[in-house]
User: Which sequence fits this backbone?
């Protein structure tokens, strides 16, 4: 009993609280700490780590299987293609790369399929020269073209910024050419 009395007196002397109040506050602090930490860490991850440590302790000789590394496919160089041919690379065929053009330069955007692929927020740009739409920051289908005539200087600067980003992030795989240059046949319509 002497230890209990001494601890009660020490708690009261140092904190000014009764032992019940002190331990209640400590318990609340632990609960708040766990709640705040839970906001930043997925509890399932914590359980997975504990399970992994337990299994590693019991079976230290066998390392856990590692998933195979994701190796992006090497971009295929297309060369010169027409706008019509570029449309085949809009993500509708998963066996083909996902391509997009800016100012006539075609880039392989397959690594950003979640943005430019089917269902992505920028899917309408895939398989097209989206220069005008990017310069205008527009998702209007009528702006999905490579024609940049009539754009203001600030809009051309926005387009230039997009082009710099694409040059840094994606591989250039070709260039858009008019139908005449590709086929060698002039349009005979009046």
Assistant:
């Amino acid at each position: 009993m002497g230890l209990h009395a001494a601890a009660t007196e020490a708690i009261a002397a140092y904190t000014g609280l009764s032992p019940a109040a002190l331990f209640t506050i400590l318990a609340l602090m632990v609960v708040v700490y766990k709640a705040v930490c839970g906001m930043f860490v997925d509890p399932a991850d914590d359980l997975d780590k504990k399970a992994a440590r337990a299994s590693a302790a019991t079976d230290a000789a066998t390392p856990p299987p590692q998933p195979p590394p994701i190796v992006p496919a090497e971009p295929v160089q297309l060369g010169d293609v027409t706008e019509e041919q570029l449309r085949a690379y809009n993500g509708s065929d998963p066996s083909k790369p996902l391509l997009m053009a800016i100012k006539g330069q075609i880039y392989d955007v397959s690594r950003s399929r979640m943005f430019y692929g089917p269902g992505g927020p920028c899917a309408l740009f895939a398989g097209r020269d989206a220069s005008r739409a990017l310069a205008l920051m527009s998702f209007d289908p009528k702006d999905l073209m490579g024609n940049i005539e009539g754009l203001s200087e600030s809009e051309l600067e926005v387009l230039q910024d997009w082009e710099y980003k694409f040059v840094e992030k994606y591989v250039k795989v070709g260039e858009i050419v008019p139908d005449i240059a590709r086929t060698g046949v002039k349009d005979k319509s009046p």
Observations:
- Residues 41 and 109 are 32 Å apart (CA to CA).
- DSSP finds eight helices and four strands in the chain.
- The first strand starts at residue 79 and ends at 81.
- The helical segments are 2-15, 19-40, 43-58, 83-86, 113-116, 131-136, 153-169, 179-183.
